[in-house]
Design a protein that fits this description.
351 residues; 13 strands; Aminopeptidase; alpha+beta; 11 helices
Length: 351
């Protein structure tokens, strides 16, 4: 039996990942990706690794200091990550989790939010060690069910076809930006989009985050753009690993939304990915778990599959966790308490 906690990119993390089949993990499990979260937040990227015989277990997470306390919590990297294991042996998983819990507790971590990956079906790896639950549906294009570009278009929702044709008639064009030549324009659109939805600054990705993706994920990422003339009016950041591509972030110039730039951008991007040999294009979910959420409805009009996205909630020190939650409830307004009462890391939300 062997176990270890690795920190960031200059560790054995990547070496340990090489013990797993490439199909059993995703871009969100890579140390370079997890380390991106440390640019925007006061946090540390870590991974717990457990080995017994020829059975391997790895769990990446982002450790964050809880404000006004001596304790920490964690979240798994933004996106679709969670634990990975080469074995479903119940005894092995129980020992791996017990050792993992002990390491987390020793680090004064009191709770953590786990995001699972529906493409590697790792939601059952906890095996009852902590509660997991369905969070929302995500929209997916499964290219293995699509033969030819015509069928890729034929399966689209009628209103989506109409929008794509309208965008084409209005002269919109599409551009694959593998070299990130238009990264500055992408960031300009991203920050203006976030400002329009009144996103809090602490939830924004930094410019260092985007430049690091360009540098560290040269073979696993690219930008896509929709243009009117020479002006980029919509952009998206695509991340990939193996046979899966992820619609990671997108942004648009709100002055041109009537031209349907996002519709043509997603459709042309889908064609590009299919021709590149990808099996899945993960469009993600909505801003909440409602099937009527406008963003989810938009994405669903491209998808031919809906996958279930699960999360897990881990409480490692119940007494301290409840105390911190109680102090938070006394500090914030009743409105904030009502909105975030069901969130595990609720105390991170303030007025």
């Amino acid at each position: 039996m062997y176990f270890k906690v690795d920190y960031g990119i200059k560790s054995d993390w990547l070496h340990n990942l090489n013990s797993f089949d490439i199909k059993s993990y995703d871009v969100y499990h890579l140390p370079n990706y997890a380390n991106l979260d440390t640019y925007s937040h006061n946090s540390i990227a870590e991974s717990f690794y457990y080995l017994e015989g020829d059975m391997h277990f790895l769990f990446p997470y982002i450790k964050k200091k809880i404000p006004d306390s001596d304790f920490y919590d964690f979240e798994t990297p933004y996106g679709y990550s969670g634990p990975i294991s080469t074995s479903n042996n119940k005894s092995f998983l129980e020992k791996a989790w017990n050792k993992c819990f002990n390491c987390l507790i020793e680090k004064k971590i009191i709770a953590g939010l786990v995001r699972f990956n529906p493409f590697i079906e790792n939601k059952d790896i906890p095996s009852g060690s902590f509660p997991t639950s369905f969070d929302r549906k995500i929209a997916v294009i499964d290219f293995s069910h699509i033969n030819g570009d015509s069928y890729l278009y034929d399966h689209l929702h009628p209103s989506n076809k109409k929008s794509i044709l309208a965008a084409q008639r209005k002269g919109l064009s599409f551009y694959i930006d593998e070299a990130f030549e238009q990264l500055e324009r992408f960031m300009e659109l991203y920050y203006s989009t976030m400002a329009k939805i009144n996103a809090e600054e602490k939830f924004l990705f930094s410019s260092k985050y985007f430049h690091s993706i360009k540098k560290c994920f040269e073979k696993n990422s690219f930008l896509v753009h929709a243009l009117i003339g020479e002006k980029i009016i919509s952009s998206a950041l695509i991340l990939s690993h193996g046979s899966i591509a992820h619609y990671h972030l997108s942004c648009s110039d709100s002055n041109y939304l009537t031209l349907c730039p996002n519709n043509i951008m997603l459709h042309e991007c889908s064609r590009y990915l299919k021709n590149k040999g990808y099996k899945y294009f993960n469009l993600g979910g909505g801003t909440n778990n409602s099937m009527r959420n406008s963003l989810f409805v938009f994405k669903s009009k491209f998808a031919n599959q809906l996958y279930d996205f699960y999360i897990g909630k881990m409480i490692l020190n119940k007494d301290i966790y409840l105390k911190i939650c109680s102090l938070w409830e006394k500090k914030v307004s009743s409105t904030i308490v009502d909105i975030y009462s069901n969130h595990l890391l609720k105390y991170r939300y303030i007025d």
